[in-house]
Q: What sequence folds into this?
């Protein structure tokens, strides 16, 4: 996470207000409301994370903000331009990296970047210079003249981001940019994204269902569930709202989860006790010292325990508090 000064936020890069989007149901099924009054604001020069499970409405939000789709109602302004009434101006001001690769497999990395620059109105020499600059920045200079079909997954995603930056956009949308990458490739791409706001003066809206990615990269983030923002703030602010340590008990049999939660709710130093399957979650100001009480209570009830952990609050806990379920439960 990089530092964003108050001055850099004096101009907002993206403002979305009460966005609603409904898709027709398939084969006679009822309509699906992808966005249900979603609102958010992205400051100039910051990395803003849109965090939520698959199907929460993240990609639909990006499509509307990048003019690829139109909201049923609500308003959105991107880089000072109304998305509905000034779509052309919005497209000139943004870069978009979608979930699907944007590179042509039978072109080289350099050719892909030069072609993008020419499409955006750069002269041939400007496009070549910008391409060389981006290839160097993303560590792709040695592979610049290889066909992109020979690139690894991490290299391809770096090139996708570079393509999104060719025209020096005021706002860059990154839709699930690291999905499918191995840990090393993810870490490398994270480092590149962190430099964008500083070196390119670019505002970045990043969608992700990875908790660690949102926590690491976002200056601020919004947690989205069922098409609405349920919590927003810096990662630290959101986690500080949850007082005490996180306590997670895994019982041996999912059938005893409800009974385990009921027994643990009797311990006065545990709060917000909940369960899903074999996992029972709670918070406590006493941290590790409450574990002996927990184990004794469950043993007395004849409930087997396979693990007990204590940790600081996480974004998964924040999501659980505001959405009533964890990321694991929704299969994010």
A:
């Amino acid at each position: 996470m990089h530092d964003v000064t108050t001055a850099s936020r004096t101009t907002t890069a993206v403002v979305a207000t009460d966005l609603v989007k409904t898709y027709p149901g398939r084969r006679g099924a009822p309509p699906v409301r992808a966005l249900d009054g979603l609102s958010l604001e992205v400051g100039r020069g910051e990395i803003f994370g849109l965090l939520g499970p698959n199907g929460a409405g993240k990609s639909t939000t990006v499509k509307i903000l990048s003019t690829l789709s139109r909201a049923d109602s609500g308003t959105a302004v991107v880089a000072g331009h109304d998305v509905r009434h000034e779509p052309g101006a919005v497209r000139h001001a943004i870069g978009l990296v979608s979930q699907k690769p944007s590179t042509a497999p039978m072109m080289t990395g350099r050719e892909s970047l030069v072609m993008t620059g020419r499409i955006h109105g750069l002269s041939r020499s400007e496009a070549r210079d910008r391409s060389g600059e981006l290839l160097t920045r993303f560590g792709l200079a040695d592979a610049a003249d290889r066909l992109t079909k020979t690139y690894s997954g991490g290299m391809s995603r770096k090139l996708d981001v570079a393509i999104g930056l060719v025209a020096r956009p005021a706002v860059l949308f990154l839709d699930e940019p690291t999905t499918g990458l191995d840990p090393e490739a993810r870490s490398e791409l994270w480092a590149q994204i962190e430099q964008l706001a500083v070196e390119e003066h670019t505002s970045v809206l990043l969608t992700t269902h990875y908790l660690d990615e949102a926590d690491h990269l976002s200056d601020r983030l919004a947690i989205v569930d069922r098409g609405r923002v349920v919590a927003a703030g810096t990662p630290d602010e959101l986690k500080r709202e949850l007082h005490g340590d996180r306590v997670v008990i895994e019982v041996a049999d999912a059938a005893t989860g409800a009974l385990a939660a009921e027994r643990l709710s009797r311990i006065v130093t545990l709060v917000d006790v909940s369960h899903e399957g074999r996992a029972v979650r709670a918070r406590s100001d006493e941290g590790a010292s409450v574990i002996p009480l927990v184990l004794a209570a469950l043993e007395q009830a004849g409930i087997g325990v396979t693990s007990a952990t204590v940790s600081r609050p996480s974004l998964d806990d924040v999501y659980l508090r505001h959405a009533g379920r964890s990321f694991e439960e929704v299969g994010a």
